[in-house]
Design goal:
By secondary structure, this protein is mainly alpha-helical. The protein has helices at about 15-40, 40-70, 75-105, 130-155, 155-185, 190-225, 235-260. The chain is globular, with a radius of gyration of 22 Å.
């Protein structure tokens, strides 16, 4: 006689999104190579389109599992918490590699860069102009997202919505300022180790800000649809953790690359 075994875990249904996401990533990375070397952007655009569709569909399914179907029990939510923590840890080591490269050259500049830092011919940014403004903007956004989090815990719907809206606006403003900074830069990615480490570190951080802004935008729409409650809002917590990680990385970028590395 067969028995039905009940357990608190959520066995996920078969999903096509991991496969499609992998294909999108393959097309995206191959498309970057094609774009840079062959000046063909079609494969890159296709990969980006597939990834955007996968992100939308996958987040939609997870939202339904948690809010509509009630599959996210306490033990499932614990697994999700560990998952986002491990993901952020991997991101820490990702940026650590950029800081490692920068410290290696900053502390012992070789003869190829003139044995000085910044290298001969490089005019770095003034850390007390746009970089300082961006620091204030991003730290302020971290304060606002924390305010929104506490508002959700206390059941204050309007305050949480307002905090999320301000955070999203500040994230977009940060991205616009960084784009302006890149446009006015007096050096390029090709300007030896300084240009390479500067643009790859700040560029990947800017990409993370864009991803975090999209993450918060999704949470904003979910909050407007009353999908978060004081006891069940891990989707928002994950976005807030990710945003605080982006804040902390920027503080290190500002202190190390803009301030200490530019003098």
């Amino acid at each position: 006689m067969s028995r039905i075994i009940c357990h608190p875990y959520h066995i996920v249904d078969e999903s096509p999104w991991p496969l499609y996401g992998s294909l999108g990533g393959l097309f995206l990375t191959s498309g970057i190579v094609s774009w840079f070397h062959l000046k063909r952007i079609i494969l890159f655009g296709l990969g980006m389109l597939i990834l955007l569709l996968v992100i939308y569909q996958w987040w939609r399914d997870i939202s339904r599992e948690g809010r509509g179907q009630g599959f996210h029990s306490s033990i499932v939510e614990l697994g999700l918490r560990w998952g986002i923590l491990l993901f952020i840890t991997s991101e820490v080591f990702f940026f650590l590699s950029f800081f490692w490269a920068f410290f290696h050259r900053r502390l012992a500049p070789n003869i190829e860069v003139g044995a000085v830092w910044p290298p001969v011919g490089i005019l770095p940014f003034n850390p007390f102009q746009v970089p300082l403004l961006n620091t204030i903007v991003l730290v302020s956004s971290g304060v606002r997202v924390t305010w929104a989090h506490h508002a959700i815990i206390e059941g204050k719907f309007y305050q949480a919505k307002l905090g999320l809206r301000i955070t999203i606006v500040l994230g977009v403003y940060f991205t616009a300022l960084q784009g302006l900074e890149y446009f006015e830069a007096r050096f390029s990615f090709a300007d030896r180790i300084f240009g390479a480490t500067f643009f790859i570190a700040t560029g990947f951080h800017g990409l993370h800000v864009i991803v975090g802004t999209i993450f918060l935008r999704v949470c904003y729409f979910r909050h407007r649809n009353f999908e978060f409650s004081p006891a069940h809002h891990f989707g928002f917590e994950a976005a807030a953790w990710y945003w605080h990680f982006v804040d902390v990385v920027w503080l290190f970028l500002y202190l190390v690359i803009y301030w200490w590395g530019g003098v």
